[in-house]
Write a structure and sequence with these properties.
The chain has 173 residues and is of the alpha+beta class. It has 2 domains: 34 residues; 132 residues, Sandwich (Immunoglobulin-like), CATH 2.60.40. It is built from 1 helix and 15 strands. The strands form 4 sheets. The protein has a 6-stranded antiparallel sheet with strand order 5-4-8-9-13-12, with no helix packed on it. Strand 12 and strand 13 form a beta hairpin. The longest helix has 33 residues.
Length: 173
């Protein structure tokens, strides 16, 4: 009788160990099947432009860029326009490891603080991982008039609401 009890305990322990082994092996296999290798993605392409207020250079305007993609907090950086209203925002990149079943989407916002007022000049959901993927190329002569109404611009992978205008888009190929 004592032997059968030990055999039952041994069998239960063995089954439990086999269960754990197969569970963790299956999880590791499924993770390797669903994940991609690390890749560099562009969260926000570099941007050069001019800020104007009532068609005059908005000198000293504070430009705040916010990017959210992996959490609600996001990342924020700022710059200030020069005496001609000109500004430049550098590229924001990140190295990520995405799963094969996930969709890459970045929320982009640019606000301008000028004469005690806040102007939201750029709102977009970017799903392209490439540089200048927002507009399909680099905008030429980008100008953002703070008193203009924002306008929708539809692209293959996104909708942009902005007061900014550009003369043309340089193809980045």
């Amino acid at each position: 009788m004592n032997i059968k009890l030990q055999d039952t305990h041994f069998q239960t322990s063995l089954l439990f160990l086999l269960f754990l082994l197969f569970t963790f092996s299956a999880e590791a296999t499924s993770m390797s099947l669903l994940s991609k290798p690390e890749e560099k993605v562009v969260l926000f392409s570099p941007m050069k432009g001019t800020i104007t207020f009532k068609n005059k250079a908005a000198s000293g305007a504070k430009i705040e860029r916010k990017v959210s993609w992996k959490d609600q907090t996001g990342e924020t950086d700022t710059t200030v326009s020069d005496e001609n209203g000109e500004f430049e925002l550098t590229i924001l990149e990140e190295t990520v490891k995405l799963s094969k079943i996930s969709q890459f989407v970045v929320s982009q916002e640019i606000s301008v603080y000028y004469h005690g007022e806040k102007f939201l000049i750029w709102t977009m959901g970017k799903s392209s991982k490439n540089i200048y993927g927002e507009l399909g190329g680099k905008p030429v002569n980008l100008t953002c008039e703070l008193t203009d109404e924002d306008m929708p611009h539809r692209f293959d992978d996104a909708l942009l609401m902005t007061v900014c205008k550009w003369d043309s888009i340089e193809n980045n190929n």
